[in-house]
Amino acid sequence: MEILSSMLYGFEVALSWQNILFVLIGVFCGTMIGMLPGLGPISAIAIMIPLSYGMNPASALILMAGVYYGAVFGGSTSSILLNAPGIAGTVATSFDGYPLAKQGQAGKALAIAAIASFCGGTFSIVALMLVAPIMADVATAFGPSEYFALMLLGLTAIASLSEGSTTKALIAAVLGLMVSTIGIDGQTGTPRFTFGSSQLMDGIDFLVIALGLFAIAEVCFLIMGRKQNLLGKASKIGSLKIRKQEAKEISGPIARHSVLGFILGVLPGAGATIASFMAYLTEKRISKKPEEFGRGSLKGLAAPETANNAACGGSFIPLLTLGIPGSGTTAVLLGALLVVGVQPGPMMLQDHPDVFWGVIASMYVGNIFLLILNLPLIPFIARVLYIPRPMLISLIIIFCLVGVYGVRFNTFDLYLLIAFGVLGFLMRLFSFPAAPFILAFILGGMMEQSFRQALTISNGSLSIFWSSPVSVTLFAVALISLIFPLIRKKGHNKSEQEGVKA
């Protein structure tokens, strides 16, 4: 009864006309910003902070929360239509979203992304209301050794990301790990792989690598095949209608990865990026037709889109109940809360119930707005495919250059973008998958940090990694997930050879 009365109080706050207007502005701006590579939710929320001065704390956080989940929602559009993921959480969306667009099913891909995002977001809001205090305790049970085991589990998925040669996937992953170590070592202050260049001291930004490996490499292939109509049906939007069989096909991934995304979102440091990759890889592993992934699988599109939106809701639990930001975006949100005079933490439920319950209730309204805004606009958004190819190629290049330059206003990043574009082009030309590279780059820094923290706590003893049941379980699952695809692949090859002999 207490939760019910708190929820009703939250809706009372969220459904005032001012807060409804702030939700609408937040999700609309977030969606538009999410579509543009380079302007992710962190930049958008940072821009909004000065506007929050003098605002009611509940209204200020409702506005910025709307920008956050709106940007994650909108980020899928550029991934599907242009293969240019604007934020890390939508990289996995491009694996099957873009192939669907190339097959003339851009409308259907955007509709599935919108519905999956809505379902994932709605589930996370319900779970947020019901289990926020319990999940806060779960989050505190994860220490550095458990996080290292979790990241290792994510890294073992590289075997699943290799469509052809596992060796090539491992080589790509090693390259990604090497690139993640570039820059000043945060613990010792030692420059690593900077070759004396001050430009590399801060490391390489994720956006430079993502846009280089995916968008610029894609542009190179579009230019090469411009006379051969390489895009084929990509200039067609296709129908938005989802058939009964297709709805049945995506219902399982949506249900599974709403839960997975929410749980991973609760863990500080995991967030939407890890959730989307884990969802994609898990779905591929359990699928009866894993060979369809990467070629326009509806399950491969629905799984990461559900998980990244579910993770957004989950990430509010450590922020609001513990005062711990789980990601860069929630760190900026924490700063915004402090600016308006609200201290997140265990006492927030008692001290600021209007902010806590009002923000959660506003997410219901925001998700409905997102669905209403996005579904009818799909035919208009997808018209980007009608743009003449030379102009579209030019626009993609301009978006990439402006997006990368806007992060640090550094021309050196533009050279890096071109370098990674050439690398992405060569990798694709010689059938090296780019997904293991980007996954290893994202996980590499976090793995190293967790590993070092765990060894510091244990005074250098490796026994800390098997002292906790959680980390032992995660290591065991990682080992199984590494070996199982190799055994299955070996068995598949053996049966193929026997078939040829027969």
UniProtKB/TrEMBL annotation:
UniProt keyword Transmembrane, yes or no: yes
- The lineage's top-level taxon is Bacteria
Record key words, sorted: Membrane, Transmembrane, Transmembrane helix
Which lineage do the record's taxonomy fields give for this organism?
A: Bacteria, Bacillati, Bacillota, Bacilli, Bacillales
Spans through the membrane: 20-39, 51-74, 110-135, 147-162, 169-186, 206-225, 259-281, 324-343, 355-381, 387-407, 414-444, 464-487
Q: What is this protein called?
A: Tricarboxylic transport membrane protein
Which Pfam families does the record match to this protein?
TctA
Q: Which residues form the DUF112 domain?
A: 20-439
